[in-house]
């Protein structure tokens, strides 16, 4: 099993199989528009622009499970991301990342890359999962680890 076995609804309502990203390095992120970490959109967009031509994708999944910091509709989220941060990487419809109603992709990501002390639940917005070109989850980054802090590691590993 790999991330390629999952599909997700895009922020515009289409269903997208993640197998469309086969061969790409992926950074999958649960996002929120009203979070202290929201400014990470800027660094994510910069990372995307830097590596996109080398088969790198960032997949953003808005989530309202942490402090209700993503209360808006998918349309409003898309407009916010584009207006404030110029986000052009793929964004998906709002999902849950923990609990019984978690999107199956996030249940898989949590299982493959447990967090601190082996706990698999995602603690907060902007948790990031790095996926290799074969669809294997290779690392989880905590919310506080900024795109600027992880860019050189990703570059050394894949580019």
TrEMBL record:
Domain annotation Thioredoxin: ranges: 1-159
The entry's keywords: Oxidoreductase, Peroxidase
Segment forming the signal sequence: none
Keyword Oxidoreductase among record annotations: yes
GO molecular function: peroxidase activity
Cross-referenced Gene3D superfamilies: Glutaredoxin
Name this protein carries in UniProt: Glutathione peroxidase
Species assigned in the record: Paenibacillus chungangensis
